[in-house]
Amino acid sequence: MFLLELPRELLLYILEVAGFGNKDLLNLALTCRRWGSLALPNLWRVRRLFKGVEYNQFKTTIQRSTTAKALHPYGEYVRILQLNELDNDPAICIDSAMIRFLAESCPNLHELTLRFSSKPHPRKIWKLPLTLLADRLKDLYTVFYEHPNVQPAATGLRQLMNQWLDEEVCDDNEDAFCKIAQENKLRNIMLYYPKIPNPLWETLASSAGTSLEGIRITINGSLCADLNPSLIARSFAKHCTNLRSFDMAAFNCTPVSKLALEELIQAASKLTHLDLPVASDAACALPLSTSLNRVYLSSTINGEDLKHFQRMDSLKNLSILKIDGICDFKFLNMLPNLEYLQIGEYGEFNDEAVCNIVNNSRIKHIELVKTPTITDKGLGMLGSMETLVKFNICDRLQNVTREGWLALVKRPIGCPSWDRLSIDDGRKIDPEFFEILHNKHPRLRKLSIRGINRHLYDDAAFSKLKFYDAWQACQSTAAIPVLQWPHRKKKPSKHVPLFDM
């Protein structure tokens, strides 16, 4: 049976699981009309445009496809679109005419990303007719979105903006983003470095209402004066009670207060993912939620405040950017279902802390980002954890020797095989480490050793190990040596016929 004789559903399934890239799909589409009808919708499903020439070709192709003789309605294939205003010549210019064209030509568009230029410009992007896309958009992401009434930190910049805008001051509630949110169709929104006045955050939250499930915000106090992360969090807590994910990165701003966090957690009862820079005393408010399973505290937390942590059964993933002061990690006893722990910067990480992690938790994956004081004994205790199968450790480790790395892989009876190991300071790792991994850890799927001391090894040390190809690739690198296993060789792209002609 020829491949093209298969039902259309099976052919679509083949395209879905094959993982073809754009070049492969294009080659496939050029083989015949049947494959063109199958491959072109996948090829046009996601379009990312960075240059004015690319957008002009995109627009021209869609316009030509609307004629009666056209075989493919390219505009109907587009589901995800990203437009970028970069310093290319000619550059893409996101304006009202472009939005109108998308509204007329892309009826199935459900995700739109608009990356505006970061340079000052006179265009009134807060008046873009985004409501024309309200009937189809589910996810709207913007970069460098701005509103004219924002108070920038630099006075000179404000004066320049006023000159461009002819001293125009508009109503704080007049905003394209708020207007499309009022249609109650948006499911996820992202605002990356927006320039939005404080009153507009309340308007945006009330406009989005209960339709909003995910919000991601990145703000910088040096770009906008009087930014208040607590006010933003409380606005969404007040109006967006159906939130599943709340992600905020705030630079040069005060962290979210305990009161604001409590309001957010109690109002959004379905919240499962939280990424916030919170005040240190706010961390103990997390157990108020019975739905949160993934939390990232992207601020400095005092070790004393973690001692007041209450029991939280729902939490499975916990990441802390930085811990200040002494922390014994006994609070992990209050997280019986925790599976992943990431510790960012903690300069007092000692053997007592490791012992409490080992004794008071059943964690499967630990990631230590900047814990330079860990010792050989600490690594040995982590290796003895009966549940731990994934381990990542970064930074230079002055207190770790050869014995510490061997203790990590010489796991006691009853401990499982390592699944993944990633080590950023491999200077003291010797051939015996790899021999133990080869012989005693049959379920190892991924290994990464950075900074390996190549003078301690030769080809004979790896000749009978499964890491031989990775070692050969490591030898060929001129920069910092990294042993990555399994090693994937880069093969030249070849056209492989999918069926007999």
Query: Unreliable stretches, pLDDT < 50, 5 or more residues?
Result: 154-169, 491-501
What composes the largest sheet? 16 strands, mixed
Classify the helix fraction into a percent range: 25-40%
Distance between the termini: 11 Å
Coarse shape: globular
Q: Total number of β-strand segments? A: 16
Measured by DSSP, the beta-strand proportion falls in: 15-25%
Radius of gyration: 27 Å
Please provide a written account of the structure.
The structure is a single chain. The protein is of the alpha/beta class and 501 residues long. It contains 18 helices and 16 strands. It has a 16-stranded mixed sheet with strand order 1-2-3-4-5-6-7-8-9-10-11-12-13-14-15-16. Helix 2 (22-29) packs antiparallel against helix 3 (33-45), helix 10 (229-239) runs parallel beside helix 11 (258-267) and helix 14 (376-383) packs parallel to helix 15. The longest helix has 13 residues, at 33-45. The protein is globular. The termini are close together.
Can you lay out the helices and strands and say which pair or pack?
Blueprint: H1 8-18, H2 22-29, H3 33-45, E1 46-49, H4 52-64, H5 74-77, E2 80-84, H6 96-105, E3 111-115, E4 139-143, H7 155-164, H8 176-181, E5 188-192, H9 198-208, E6 214-220, H10 229-239, E7 245-251, H11 258-267, E8 273-276, E9 294-302, H12 303-306, E10 317-324, E11 340-345, H13 351-359, E12 365-370, H14 376-383, E13 390-393, H15 402-409, E14 420-423, H16 431-440, E15 446-450, H17 459-462, H18 468-475, E16 482-485
Parallel strand pairs: 1-2, 2-3, 3-4, 4-5, 5-6, 6-7, 7-8, 8-9, 9-10, 10-11, 11-12, 12-13, 13-14, 14-15
Antiparallel strand pairs: 15-16
Helix pairs in contact: 2-3, 9-10, 10-11, 13-14, 14-15
